[in-house]
Amino acid sequence: MWIADRWKDYELLDATDGMRLERWGEFVLERPDPQVIWKTGRRHPRWDNPDAAYRRSASGGGAWSEHSLPESWTVSYGDLRFAVKPMNFKHTGLFPEQAVNWDAAGEWIRRRARDGQGVKILNLFAYTGAATAACAKAGAAVTHVDAAKGMVAWAKDNAAANQVQARWIVEDCRRFLERERRRGSRYDAIILDPPSYGRGPGGEIWRLEDDVFDFLTLAAPLLTETPAFVYLNAYTTGLAAGVLAYMLDAVFTARFGGHAEARELGIPVSGTSAPCWTSYILPCGATGRWNR
């Protein structure tokens, strides 16, 4: 497991009975997590008075409780800065477990820079641009692609907070890949963070387990002859880490050499509701990494 244990501005205070208790900077939020199936009692005192809590509705969906939070606020990870805020569907616009991938990508980018090589990165399904900001901060030229205009606007704000630039594209990722292939565009690395389920601009249904392999095959020709890496994130519960590694090997190792590995991502829990009252790690999806 790759564990995101270098945070100062984020802390998973406790987790039990389907819920997380988290500190985001100076604010404490309570929100659901389907991985938290144990019921070990709420022993952290902030369960009684979080700054905001997300409550599911019996009819579906849910909403944040009444709170006095600002519209958004900033959290830091090393020298990176990100805006967070309570969103619909329980999210905050940032996945803290992804910090391990920001660190790994940054190291590759800096290593190639020491060898006098620039890095062009394609960030697909790029959301609010945490990976975009991290890679650009390390010295890469990043193309950021997401179909949601609002998310790209948020990503631009994150980039500005980090004093970096990127190429911003609001478009369906599959259509963008097809267009870039026709243009003969090439990148040194690709980051993919696709949703488990979604719909394309023509109403096409996307299911990660059904469509991701073909998507990887479509993306492979956009890499240069000597690419650096491909990272693939997955939050689909039934998609094991080993499956990610196998797909990356089948598409990228077969074409370029190198190797793939994949692991679960995790966040340390600092509270005391863990089994046997010891610290533990909350699993948070998986990442596959292909490196040449």
Strand order of the largest sheet: 1-16-17-15-12-9-10-11
CATH architecture of the largest domain: 3-Layer(aba) Sandwich
Examine the coordinates and then state which fold CATH places here, giving the name of the CATH topology of the largest domain: Rossmann fold
User: What is Rg?
Assistant: 19 Å
CATH class category of the largest domain: Alpha Beta
Shape: globular
Largest sheet: 8 strands, mixed
CATH superfamily of the largest domain: Vaccinia Virus protein VP39
Output mean pLDDT.
Answer: 92
What distance separates the N and C termini?
A: 21 Å
H/E topology pattern = EEEEEEEEHEHEHEHEEEHEHEE
Strand content: 25-35%
Q: Structural class, please?
A: alpha/beta
Key structural traits:
8-stranded mixed sheet; 292 residues; Rossmann fold; 2 domains; 17 strands; Immunoglobulin-like; 5-stranded mixed sheet; 32% strand; alpha/beta; 6 helices
